[in-house]
Amino acid sequence: MQWIVNEVPDKSLLNTAGWRFIVPQLYKKFPNDDMNMNLSLSSPPVIRISADNIDATVYADLIIDVLDGPDVIPVACISLVFHGSGSVEVVKNNLAGSVKLNDFSMLLKWSKIGNLRMFIIQPIMWTIIETVFLPYVNLHLAKGFPLPITHGFTLQNAEIICSNSNIKVCSDVAIAESYDLSQLLIEKHFSYAFRDLQKIA
Fold first, then answer.
1. Global pTM value
2. Strand pairing of 71-91 and 94-111?
3. Predicted confidence (pLDDT) at residue 37 exceeds the cutoff of 90
4. Is the pLDDT reported for residue 165 higher than 60?
5. Same domain, 159 and 136
6. Long-range contacts from 147-152, C-beta under 8 angstroms, 24+ separation
7. Which residues are in the Lipid-binding serum glycoprotein C-terminal domain (predicted)?
């Protein structure tokens, strides 16, 4: 996973002028240059599922890029560890969910602009995570992932059971209102007929 962030609610955070009092050497070297943030997973996330909760630890690298004319110049890399919790639900025939941030830590991995004071940068990163990263992730999780179900049917009264690192979905099944049962029978008939023809051939 890789995500280049070039839009945030506080636009000053994507220009070196907005960092001139936080990282003076950045502004001095690249005055009034635009920036972006290149976020990528550094290793697979660790997910723990129990009867009471779903916890996740996500490891990522955040590279700060300066846009100096036509050039994209990486100036620093910060290693991030996110600790969050989540919930899941069935939406139509999809398994959807949401996550919230419980805590995170950060460590300077490398820098071309000298040492960075992490304790000053951390509150800013928290704001970016809460206003940009989490809404983006939750937007995609809300759409959900399709559950395996026969075409023309839909889940009803679904119940989710979490235990021992497993997520189980128990549900009744009903014919979708917009689906014609006779069409399902025709599809099944042609499916079986095609299989019989393959055996003869």
1. 0.76
2. antiparallel
3. yes
4. yes
5. no
6. 147/90, 147/93, 147/94, 147/95, 149/93, 149/173, 151/184, 151/187, 152/176, 152/179, 152/181, 152/183, 152/184
7. 1-171
| pLDDT for residue 188 is more than 80 | no
SS3 27: helix
Domain of 38, CATH number, reads 3.15.20.10
Q: Which residues of 21-53 are buried (b: 16+ CB within 10 A; e: fewer)?
A: eebebbbebbeebebbbbbeeeeeeeeebeeee
Together in a domain, 81 and 45? yes
Mean pLDDT of 162-183: 74
Q: Are residues 9 and 88 in the same domain?
A: yes
User: Could you tell me if 110 and 174 lie in one domain?
Assistant: no
**Does residue 70 sit within a domain?**
yes
Distance (Å, whole) CA 63 – CA 73: 10
- 8 Å CB contact between 18 and 27: no
Handedness of CA 72, 138, 52, 169 (dihedral sign): negative
Domain count, the chain: 2
Contact 172, 153 (CB under 8 A): no
Q: Domain range holding 178?
A: 153-183
